[in-house]
Amino acid sequence: MKRDDITLRGAGESAAIAPQPAMGRSHPHESARAQVAGNAHYIDDLPELRGTLFAAPVMSPVAHGRVNGIDASAALAMPGVHGVVLASDIPGDRVFPSAARDEAILASEAVQHVGQVVALVVADTVMAARRAARFVKLDVTPLPAILSVQDALAAQSFVLPPVHVRRGDAEAALAQATHRLQGQFETGGQEHFYLEGQIAYALPLEQGQWWIHSSNQHPGEVQHWVAHALGIPAHAVRVECRRMGGGFGGKETQAGHMAVWAALAARKFGRPVKLRLDRDDDFMVTGKRHPFAYEYDVGFDASGRITGLKLQMATDCGHSADLSGAVADRAVFHCDNAYFLEDVDIVSYRCKTHMQSHTAFRGFGGPQGVIAIEVILGDIARRLRLDALDVRLRNLYGKDERNVTHYQMQVEDNILHELLPTLEQSSDYRRRQKAVSAWNAVNPVFKRGLAITPVKFGISFTATLFNQAGALVHVYTDGSVQVNHGGTEMGQGLNTKVAQVVADELGVPLDHVMVTAADTSKVPNASATAASSGTDLNGRAAQYAARTVRDNLAAFVSGLDRCGAGAVRFEGGMVISPQTTRPWREVVVAAYANRIQLWSDGFYRTPKIHYDKTTLTGRPFFYFAYGAACTEVAIDTTTGESRVLAIDILHDVGRSLNPAIDVGQIEGGFIQGMGWLTTEELVWDPKGRLATHAPSTYKIPATSDVPEHLNVALWPEANREDNVGGSKAVGEPPFMLAISVYEALRNAVAAARADGGAAAGERIELRAPATAENVLRALGRVAG
Ligand code: MTE
Ligand code: HPA
Ligand code: MOS
Asked: Would 529 disulfide with which of 356, 487, 571, 711, CB 3.0-4.6 Å?
């Protein structure tokens, strides 16, 4: 889609609101040109200080074992090697200070997964360090390992206790149901595959101070972790991140490991140390999206409306808790997706296995929750031989009734009753469904499938305390403006949007505003840039900071012109009072000369949210973001290969701050979701070794997998809650639209199986990701 073609549906309405010179327009990403030209700095591009050393990890070869000893003599004898760093070199606490405190910084007594880091080799060059790391010998006694959710459930092996959420009486509702269906299914994990791998560069400064360059989503947490490991106060550690080459959740906590390891090595040798993981090592060391296993028992009436549901979700958290509690909670909060579940019983198990510690990944458990109910509704529709969209529409949250979630939050802003029928029309769903059936009736080899699925995604960190942000706005005497906020840029366009917000608050052209690197010495205690809330939180904080500066200037001008400060407007680079119109810069210079403060901080906390962590009830989300996608696929029943033929998306970003960036997020999120459900398969061998640890064996979508027919339209209504610029968060919600790919694939498989004489209404068991092999399995053409 050409960016110039992006139009806001109902643009007339937004034009009626006050003209916004920067917000609402498709300004290019602030780094787009530099990135394309190769001039944008990532950490590995920073000039290296003289004396910089390089670290490489020594990894456990077994999934679970007792460490008897480490022999580094061969490595130490290799050219360029300075030494090794072991747990005994840690001056502070030897565990990462995560909430659960269950992960060793460097494993010393036990190893818990293949790839766990036990030591670092430090050398003159990256290659010397990596080569030598292979010559460090570990003496490990293997212990029995738990390598699947099923084994973990059987062994009652959990990183955190199970969580139950119940409403009504599911048991009784199931007993009384007209129809009843049971099923089991699984979804796989997903590697983040950020283009820039994990990296940190630790610089020891004078008097015990530190400067850490870290590619990470949560500089404040990295600062805390480094200080904790070094046994020094946080004020001595400065963490900076100009940008990441993608994070996708994979750098929310686990970038902290690189930073701590690099800092420990730098401390031991008194030199700057850079640690950049090789791609294969990145796969082996870091956690991924949580795989899930589900069991359900659903009751429904003849129209397909759900009357009772029991759902068990068990997730593989890996060897430590990391963010698994919050991820599994978000899955519980999203297993209703857009549908009212009256009598429900949900149980969520957080399993401990001897695998990488799974972590945040776009959607943060939301996709794993949403797919549960979408699979169940797809199964119900096929059982009843009803159109799946009709079944979905019948189960939607109501407007005035049937609108309270299983966690007791009232759904006040539901727009799916209008949005879904609009997409149904614009995608020509009914006609195409008939065409697909006609095609399938006469084509025995290639089968098609079509599906529409909606999304309703809760916006706010479920951990209420993270929903706060700070920013600084500095106006210099030449009229230029510098902004710093607690968020991080990972390609999502946060800095561009924040600059747009500030430009409009001050009424100056966008090129007057520059956003600088995330830096713990500017805005302290900032939350992770995550939960899609970066712009909501930091955009508002920056807006408030700019507002204070503007108020200072308005008061100054009102004194000059003897008018009320409220009568002074800031627009188009001018400061306009009822008496005089002056250029922005002139006002800034005069204000400076009169000792008016030209900079300010701003602070924002999300209103209205609260919830009880033990029962998971309350209002965890400020609002919901909505959307829907219509996807058509084809499968080759002889090979199992599949193709996405056409995608139509209608998505709700509120009043878009930047339509080009929002459409980019929608397309990118969808395609990443498509990868999760189609080709991105992680395979661990029976010894717990990840066999798919490079692009040769792990396949993310390529441009050629994106169909030419990819239409994205934006829903024209502003956020009904008072959010920055009337916008809604966009980073994660579109990921879940790709569940339409999976449901379309199951429909195509169903069409093929009906040909083969399969029982009518049979459950289509298609493992996710729907690789060619798994499609053949679902067709009953291969065993297992
Ligand atoms: N877009 C790009 N280009 N790169 C990324 O790493 N991360 C996603 C999403 N979009 C990501 C991205 C994730 S997981 C989240 S939570 C949000 O961006 C975070 O940024 P935001 O809150 O500013 O939207
Ligand atoms: N989303 C993303 N990251 C998080 C969350 C969340 O809800 N809670 C804690 N970290
Ligand atoms: Mo995104 S998974 O909340 O970093």
From this structure: 487
Residue 737 lies in a domain: yes
The best mutation among 248, 251, 657, 676 to test binding of ligand 1, ranked by most ligand atoms within 8 Å of the C-beta, falls on: 248
- Name the residue range of residue 480's domain: 3-27+468-605
Could you tell me if 784 and 651 lie in one domain? Answer: yes
pLDDT at residue 314 greater than cutoff 90: yes
Atom 12 of ligand 1, nearest CA residue: 492
State the pLDDT at residue 614: 85
Are residue 514 and residue 446 in the same domain, yes or no? no
| 1 pLDDT higher than 90 | no
**Centroid of ligand 1 to alpha carbon of 53 (angstroms):** 32
Whole-angstrom Cα distance, residue 20 to residue 7?
Answer: 16
Q: What average pLDDT does range 260-289 have in this prediction?
A: 98
Of the three residues 563, 580, 605, the one that is the final residue of a domain is: 605
- Cα(110)–Cα(223) distance, integer angstroms: 27
CATH number at 472 reads 3.30.365.10
Residue nearest to atom 8 of ligand 1 (CA): 248
Residues 453 and 590 in one domain: no
Q: Are residues 479 and 536 in the same domain?
A: yes
Instruction: Give the residue among 507, 498, 442, 439 at the shortest CA–CA distance from 469.
Output: 498
State the catalytic residues.
Answer: 732
Q: How far is the CA of 529 from the centre of ligand 1 (A)?
A: 8
* Residue 330 near ligand 2, beta carbon < 6 Å: yes
Angle between helices 416-426 and 388-395 (to 10 degrees): 160
Tokens 């401990």: give the residue: 352
* pLDDT grade for 289, boundaries at 50, 70 and 90: very high
Segment 384-407, tens digit of pLDDT: 999 999 999 999 999 999 999 999
649 with 698, same domain: the answer is yes
Enclosing H/E stretch for 281: helix 279-285
Question: Angle of helix 584-593 relative to helix 540-561, nearest 10 degrees?
Answer: 80
Number of domains in the chain: 4
Q: How far, in Å, CA of 357 to CA of 67, rounded?
A: 19
Residue where a domain stops, chosen among 250, 265, 285: 285
Phi/psi region, residue 437 (left: phi>0; alpha: psi -120 to 50; beta: rest), is alpha
Residue 357 in any domain: the answer is yes
Kindly state if the Cβ of 323 falls inside 6 Å of ligand 2: yes
List the 110-111 sheet strands across, edge first. Answer: 110-111, 65-71, 137-142
Kindly state whether residues 537 and 391 are assigned to the same domain: no
2 pLDDT higher than 60: no
**Distance of CA 530 from the midpoint of ligand 3 (Å):** 4
Residue 34 within a domain = no
The predicted-structure confidence for 332-388, as pLDDT tens digits, reads as follows 999 999 999 999 999 999 999 999 999 999 999 999 999 999 999 999 999 999 999
Q: How far is the CA of 532 from the centre of ligand 1 (A)?
A: 6
Looking at the structure, tell me whether residues 224 and 95 fall in a common domain: yes
**Residue 124 included in any domain:** yes
- Are 345 and 210 in a shared domain? no
Q: Is the pLDDT of residue 20 over 70?
A: no
Above 90 in pLDDT, residue 422? yes
Reported as a pLDDT band with limits 50, 70 and 90, residue 782 is confident
Determine the 3-state secondary structure of 50 from DSSP.
coil
